[in-house]
Design goal:
alpha+beta; Double Stranded RNA Binding Domain; five-stranded antiparallel beta sheet; Protein Transport Mog1p, Chain A; ten-stranded antiparallel beta sheet
Length: about 450
């Protein structure tokens, strides 16, 4: 959750630049409207047309109001262009609403309860971020990191938004449709059920959220998504442990659809009260569309302005309704089994040809993260000429031969890692003529380096 909040803060900063340059345009439009007003219409307000074809009063809408999407960004000599963002699925958006509120989302990390004024986005009521707009491009410079957004659409007035909510609520009520409706979560890995008298699916007018409340004063937006990658899952589990250490009653462990699950809550977030469900998978799952290959957990969450708004049976029942696609799980299990078989084949072939080097067939290389960090720091300071035996002494165990990368007559590579494989230090040695092995290079996870 810490990483998510950090990204949220960056996202908020990015969003702040969307509102500048509106005053001059507004004055010009107002002046033009006054000059062309007939005697018959002198009391009418000047109007402008939004990108979606709707007409708004100039008093109701600044030129900056609209929806913006992250197009590209740059930091120093490094530039991440639009194609790279598209290919990696990295998305960012900002919505500036004409009621003075804003919503920002970067990389699936939404920030709500923001406000804005021309040229500024205001977070938590006190942190201001400036932005500039040229044409349809909004540019934000945050301490050397420059973000570029593109306008993608206009937003309705606050009155129109209220009218849509009222219409949706009335429709649901008049139809008597309170049955549970199935919703297919992102990537097609699981489904949930929701009550149509309380929630609806998002439309083009909704900037963030997967389930939108008909009455946003009683229920929060919900985000129905996934945790992608082992690092992201580990980060969330660490956050849960931190919450548990402060208040064990805030974490509930239970079984959902045959899987061990965790529901936890926290009110330490500046966004409000946080409620979240995590269901880790036994192995990474590939999405039905084949694009996402590292789905490691079900992840459903929401923020509420009050405890009653988020911590209630309606929200919990949605979380409890998770139904994971068995066929997707089976495919993932089969793929994991195939990968294990392939890995074992490499081990068998490598050991048959070259033995196990200085190690042995039973070696796992498992050790703690602290040992990995200490050994990395030691080898960095010790210089060249270090032997396998010296590394083994620091690690406290033999390394597992790394046959699929480097294991032949000239090089031997070994793996030392935490038991879950999340952090590692892989070391390659040069095989000398006398049979000794001396340090050549290493590969490590970010945590091992201490970053």
């Amino acid at each position: 959750m810490k990483k998510k909040l950090t990204i949220c803060i960056l996202a908020a900063a990015m969003a702040m630049s969307l509102a500048a340059c509106g005053d001059d345009k507004k004055e010009e439009a107002t002046t033009a409207a006054k000059e062309t007003t007939t005697a018959e219409a002198t009391t009418e307000e000047a109007t402008i047309s939004g990108d979606d074809g709707d007409v708004y009063t100039i008093e109701d809408q600044s030129d900056d109001v609209g929806i913006y999407e992250l197009y590209e960004y740059e930091s120093g000599n490094t530039k991440v262009d639009h194609a790279t963002l598209e290919n990696t699925g990295m998305k960012g958006s900002l919505a500036l609403k004409n009621d003075g509120t804003a919503e920002l989302n970067l990389f699936d990390s939404p920030i709500e309860n923001l406000t804005w004024e021309s040229g500024k986005l205001i977070m938590a009521g006190s942190v201001n971020y400036d932005y500039t707009i040229s044409g349809d491009t909004l540019t934000l410079d945050m301490t050397g990191v420059v973000y570029h957004f593109r306008r993608t659409g206009a937003l309705g007035t606050a009155a129109e938004d209220d009218e849509k909510k009222t219409t949706a609520a009335t429709t649901a009520s008049s139809s008597g449709n309170t049955a549970e409706t199935e919703y297919v979560a992102k990537h097609g890995v699981y489904t949930i059920k929701y009550d149509e008298s309380i929630y609806r699916l998002p439309t083009d007018d909704d900037w963030v959220g997967d389930l939108i409340p008909l009455d946003d004063t009683k229920f929060p937006k919900l985000y129905v998504t996934s945790l992608d990658g082992e690092d992201r899952l580990k980060e969330e589990l660490d956050a849960i442990d931190e919450v548990r250490s402060k208040d064990s009653s805030a974490v509930e462990e239970l079984t959902i659809d045959g899987h061990e699950a965790i529901i936890y809550k926290s009110n330490e977030d500046f966004l409000g009260y946080f409620y979240c469900l995590v269901i880790p998978f036994d192995q990474e799952i590939k999405s039905s569309d084949g694009y996402y290959s590292q789905i490691n957990a079900v992840y459903i969450y929401g923020y509420g302005e009050t405890e009653d708004m988020i911590y209630n049976d309606t929200i919990k029942n949605i979380m409890l309704s998770v139904d994971i696609d068995e066929s997707v799980e089976k495919a993932a299990a089969d793929a994991a089994a195939d990968a294990a078989t392939e890995e074992q084949a490499k081990v068998d072939a490598g050991s048959a040809a070259y033995g196990y080097g200085k190690s042995n067939a039973e070696a796992t290389g498992n050790c703690s993260l602290e040992v990995l960090k200490e050994t990395y720091a030691w080898q960095k300071d010790a210089g060249s000429g270090l032997t396998y035996e010296e590394f083994k002494e620091h690690f406290g165990c033999d390394g597992a031969p790394w046959f699929d990368v480097a294991f032949d007559n000239e090089r031997h590579a070994y793996k030392w890692q935490t038991e879950d494989g999340a952090d590692f230090l892989y070391v390659t040695f040069k095989v000398n003529d006398d049979g000794s092995e001396t340090y050549s290079s290493c590969t490590y996870s970010t945590a091992v380096k201490g970053e």
